[in-house]
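Quick start: what a row looks like.
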Amino acid sequence: MELLKERIRNDGKVKEGNVLKVDSFLNHQMDINLFGEIGKEFKRRFSDAEVTKILTIEASGIGIACVAAQYFNVPVVFAKKTQTKNIAGETYTSQVESFTHGKVYDIIVAKEFLKPEDKVLIIDDFLANGAALLGLSKLVKDSKATLVGAGIVIEKGFQRGGETVRNAGVRVESLAIVDAMDENTGTITFR
């Protein structure tokens, strides 16, 4: 998706430790017009999937998932990173290690929101080591719903997450795959 790649080139910042900061338009301040184009592209790529639910993880994926859901006309379910009083009843849980935060989370979805008849599309902002995607995939598998695929805004192609998730049998559609980043020059190259 050229529009997204151009935005990453112009406004993305490469930081130490293979961190790509896109918080000026994607995951802190959100460019809703760009999100609209992202949602349309996910709908185009998964038009054959008969999606009934979109699943994401808090917090950065929620905005993107909500805008994309408008094009599919389906609800969004987001996995919470902490058990709260308002999650009553039985839950599906999985453990996820966050690349960005260097922390392990138990992610939780109430069983009432993922049913065996659902066809679930996972949407997330980044794919780095694949842990979030595999954790979300486990929630779908545990619910006996059908995982139709994962829509990723930015994949770090130089990390093993994409390969790991694809090898696990998940259809992954990434809108921008970063092949390399140079923190000294700020250069970002795409596949």
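That is the whole record. Strands lie at 13-15, 19-21, 53-57, 76-79, 91-98, 103-110, 119-127, 146-156, 172-181, 188-190. The radius of gyration is 16 Å.
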